Here is the input.
Amino acid sequence: MKQVILFLFFLAILGLMTACTPSWPPLSKVSIQVSSSCNSTTTPATCSVKLVNDPRSPQAFNWKVVVLPSDIHLGISSGTITPGGSNEIDFQALHKQCPVNMTFTGSDGTVVKTGNINC
Here is the structure.
């Protein structure tokens, strides 16, 4: 009888654990996607970079940015993106300043680079 009760208890615990397990695998590190766009018909060109934190990310992405060339003025130069959230960084660039490169560094060590943003 004692073995039957222990077996049923074990099955109940196993059922609870299975019910609480997410159906998708959680990420072990912040996952950031980056996209950019520029309107080069204006002078200076108006551009934006969008950072998106994957909804499955285990934490917020606390970031700061370094931009080259360094004389580009950004709307914001640091921020926090919660899982599933995004930040958009606007800037203007003269055509002689292009291409623009940005490197975003997170407090957890994550580094995201835009590559060349042509304007």
